[in-house]
Amino acid sequence: MIEVKNLTKYYGPHKAVDNLSFTVQRNQVYGFLGPNGAGKSTTMNILTGCLAATEGTVLIDGHDIFQDPIGAKRLIGYLPELPPLYPDMTPKEYLMFVGEAKGLSGKELKEQVKYACERTSIADVANRLIRHLSKGYKQRVGIAQAILGNPEIIILDEPSVGLDPTQIIEIRDLIKDLAKDRTVILSTHIMQEVTAICDQVLIINKGKLLANDTPENLSDILQDRNIFDITVKGDSVKIINALNGVAGVTNASVLSTDAGVVSVVVECSKESDPEEQIFYALSDARCPIVKMEKREMTLEQVFIRITSQNIDTVSESGEED
Questions:
Q1: What is the predicted pLDDT for the residue at 272?
Q2: How far apart are CA 303 and CA 305, in angstroms?
Q3: pLDDT tens, 39-51?
């Protein structure tokens, strides 16, 4: 759907985007992550044709964004970090204006405005001045203008910035709904948002692409050991002795003990998969397991490790380069 090759952008001597190459598949949700100043907004502005690149190509469903900007932009709806709203217009007036700018007219324009209002749940405030709307409703109006014309690709730059927790959940649910029949690229600093709705994660830092994979694969690649949290009934010494006898277990330690119920953390080598052996070892020791959970590396931990701990690249195939 989107193919980016060797994309580079200089601002004077500063290289904001450094030889980026990646592809975006149809009907997927991509989380675009990076620290402040990583080059996310610059890249998005180039993808949408709002900014020229110094080098490289961007193809939107085969249309070159630089050589055929009109053909490419017809496929894109874009919400910048600061929604381009006119506060003295009503949402309906604003959407009519944007629709006309996109080439819509007559019955089609009215139907598209109605559709955008209903899809983003702003119909009830469509005739109020935008200046009087809450931050959450303003974001919804911004998303409504992005989906006018029914583009196949929606690009959202920090759609939840400045919103309260309730508004964040509402915008997240809206994005999930839009993603059912569109390709979505979402730039955000809210990792829970990415975990909840994104199929794929792109991580950049200092203009370079560091990772392009699913959240689950990135966690598996970067996690250097397996960790299990186990709750067991029995004597703590007997439990630890049983666990330390399991092949692959490198460390077992007690976290807490309460009325004969012991909470234990067990560390194992990454290559080992000792869950069944742990079960049998504790069974033989007559220490029944109440609960056993494998810890997964969170997306926050993945992000911090990739952007700060000398990892150059995690490739699409899931191998560190």
A1: 79
A2: 6
A3: 999 999 999 999 9
Residue-range domains of the chain with CATH: 2-220 (3.40.50.300), 225-294 (3.30.70.1340)
Structure tokens at 86: 């006119």
Measured CA to CA in angstroms, residue 71 lies from 62, 76, 113, 181 at distances of 9, 10, 22, 20
**What is the total residue count of the chain?**
321
In the block, tokens 């709705």 appear at: 197
Percentage, residues of the chain above pLDDT 70: 96
pLDDT tens for 284-300 read: 999 999 999 988 878 88
> Bridge-partner residues for 254, per DSSP?
264
Please check whether residue 137 is in contact with residue 125, taking contact to mean a CB–CB distance below 8 angstroms: yes
pLDDT confidence bin for 235, thresholds 50/70/90:
very high
Return the amino acid letter for 119: R
In this model, does residue 319 exceed pLDDT 60?
no
Nearest to 59 by CA among 102, 97, 7, 99: 7
Identify any residues that bridge with 227 across adjacent strands, giving them in sequence order: 267
Closest CA to 53 of 65, 63, 38: 65
Which position has the token pair 């792109």? 202
Cβ-contact 34, 186 below 8 angstroms: no
pLDDT class of 318 with cuts at 50, 70, 90: very low
- Enumerate residues 6+ apart whose C-beta is below 8 A from 248: 268, 269, 271, 272, 273, 274, 277
Of the two residues 232 and 162, the one the predictor is more confident about is 232
